[in-house]
Amino acid sequence: MTDVVDSSELLRRIQRGRDCAADEERVWRARAEKLSATDPEGAREASARAWAYEAVFRVLDEIAVPGRHGDGSE
Q1: Is residue 5 part of a domain?
Q2: What is the DSSP string of the chain?
Q3: pLDDT tops 90 at residue 44
């Protein structure tokens, strides 16, 4: 039931998750921009989802490439 994976496979899975989060962030940011004129509430919700995916991306990216984002004071 529990698969044991090596570090290379774990890194590949983290990178796939990071890439998926980046794609979803782009989708939700585009949706927020599209809705901003016609549906402000929908635009806010889409923006919140984009921020959430951005956070997931940054965490997974820091695991995959330590130090890329500096000390976090950006």
Answers
A1: no
A2: -PPP--HHHHHHHHHHHHHHHHHHHHHHHHHHHHHTTT-HHHHHHHHHHHHHHHHHHHHHHHHHSTTTTTTS--
A3: yes
